[in-house]
Amino acid sequence: MHLRLKKNETAVRMKLSPEVREAADTEKRGRKASKETRRQQLIEATIDSLAKRGYSETTLADVADGAGLSRGIVNFHFESKEKLLIATLQFMADEYAANWGAALEKAGDKAAAQLWALVACDFDRKICTKRKLAAWCAFWGEAKSRPTYQALCGARDVKYQDIFLALCQTLKDEGDYAYEPDGMTLALCASMEGLWLRLMMGDGLTREKAFSAAVEYLLVAFPKHFTREGPK
Amino acid sequence: MHLRLKKNETAVRMKLSPEVREAADTEKRGRKASKETRRQQLIEATIDSLAKRGYSETTLADVADGAGLSRGIVNFHFESKEKLLIATLQFMADEYAANWGAALEKAGDKAAAQLWALVACDFDRKICTKRKLAAWCAFWGEAKSRPTYQALCGARDVKYQDIFLALCQTLKDEGDYAYEPDGMTLALCASMEGLWLRLMMGDGLTREKAFSAAVEYLLVAFPKHFTREGPK
DNA sequence: CCATTTTGAATGAGCGTTCAGCAAATATGT
DNA sequence: ACATATTTGCTGAACGCTCATTCAAAATGG
Hints:
The structure is a homodimer. Chain A is mainly alpha-helical. In chain A, 67% of the residues lie in helices and 2% in strands.
């Protein structure tokens, strides 16, 4: 009963990833962290674990350790591992959608500028992290056999696709290009996803190089609308 | 001691996938199947399992059942699950490389024809199966955290990349195109991988549509060299 | 105190691996 | 030819480990 350890305060000395630390730092500390804060902290730890160990080797123990919390914690805040993973994917999908939504807002109303913004924001620092790419890829690998994942992995979803298609269509009309817009759009979207895949595989490809490859595509597809520096 | 079951002969009545059946059918049956035949049979069953259940839920029991053989069998022919998976990936990588190698052979020596062949063969019936795409994707998801997989997943490897780059370079010179060939090649390769990814996710995208999207890309990039029907 | 959050030991299911043993195929001896 | 021994391929029960889940007890805040 004497000499009791104050665990929380000393345990924080452990090395947590910056993302987890930040998620836990929303004002309140230790026990006072709100439910939502804890959930976010655990989600960040899950992304860490997915990136570090891959889907199949991600364990609740690793997530809990990564968050600097105890073993049973996940089943308290989420009720199962499955639900934690879904919440994690949901979070990433929401973040992704918010990102391109905001980029579109800021782009003004010229189609060329919008398309450029949409392509550029995919390679944004905030989204296009090794950490997050790896997590995305982990989910992609499992999506085939899990309808729930499959639905969320289409964050690049129908709406996103339609906007892309509409923009390509507009530019085609403006510029009198000859291509078939469905195929063109598909190839462009696919190219961006493929670039993500390669970024994740990590053979010395950088965000900047990937982005400029995507730009190269825009240039040949819409020569009247773009230069390497941006929309005309 | 009386009334002994003839297991092998009756057990074959189970429903095995066509691929497994074919692998097991190389002349000899039952006990006489050669070591190499059995390995192939197990590899096909592994691809089935990866496609059906995803990487994380693929078990040796499922593989053995899929092959119509007993539980201990994998550890007899391969020595561990890990090695079975590596052998499976190796097999797919070899098959993929052989496929584009052969396509290149048959294409003659005009650069445009070669590039077309290289793109087309990626969407070949033999390679581009739902089953195999799903298996590829399962490995991609784990590749990040496993150097061995990462190395093999680059079957789309350096050599492949270099050929692509050289062809794009040649066409650029022939056609006086303005783009920067490194980026162009990267975007093209990425596009094909992205199309695979989407084929696997399976939102009603067909092999044919994916291929024509890739062709659309070739058209805008190399307008003087290609029509929708093929190289000029 | 009571409610809420957190802990960590206990539980049990699932899975990879091992291995003794059986049966088919092949080699050897007569 | 046949009988016997040896090798090879395969089986499936048993073992032990990892990990998600549960829960009683403790810590904390109000």
